[in-house]
Amino acid sequence: PWVFDHLVNLQQLSLYSNQLTSLPARVFDHLANLQHLYLGDNQLSALPVGVFDKLAQLTDLGLNGNQLKSVPDGAFARLSSLTHVWLHTNPWDCQCTDILYLSGWAAQHSGIVGEGWPWRHSPDSAKCSGTNTPVRAVTEASTSPSKCP
Questions:
Q1: By Cβ atoms counted within 10 A, which residue in 10, 19, 39, 43 is the most buried?
Q2: Domain span at residue 20?
Q3: Where is the composition biased (Polar residues) (predicted)?
Q4: Is the pLDDT of residue 1 over 70?
């Protein structure tokens, strides 16, 4: 069992600035009532597939200030309640085709992408590493599977 498994009524979890380098798969699966999850200012370099899938009530998701280069396909697909997402200050790899899920998602959900505290709307705050191009502007034509690690 994971450390959070018995906290079934938890609504807010702040793991902000804890030097986390990874998350175990399914670590949040028992937190069905979670509304606010702050993972910002850690050292996360990847997210496990499906790590947010059980968080249907989540409204706020902070992933800013990590080492994320992409997110798994479908990472946010089940987060239908999201109203605020922080994605900025990550080294998003916009040359690799792995970025295309996030790019498409950020373009479709530009109204909930922001930065700052309190949150302010900033749809272009998630930038490609090295180019400053907004992640939501990346197209399939500008990426290549051969540029993926």
A1: 39
A2: 1-149
A3: 128-149
A4: no
- How are strands ordered across the β-sheet holding 113-115? 12-14, 36-38, 60-62, 84-86, 113-115, 120-121
Tokens of 71: 């997110």
Element (H, E) at 86: strand 84-86
Strand partners, 60: 36, 84
CA dist 135 and 38 (Å) reads: 21
Domain count, the chain: 1
Whether 149 and 139 have beta carbons less than 8 Å apart is answered as no
Cis bond upstream, residue 118 (ω within 30) = yes
pLDDT confidence band for 149 (50 / 70 / 90): confident
**Helix and strand element counts for the chain (H, E):** 1, 6
Label residue 3 exposed, middle or buried (CB < 10 Å: 0-12, 13-18, 19+): exposed
CATH number at residue 15: 3.80.10.10
Is 16's pLDDT higher than 70?
A: yes
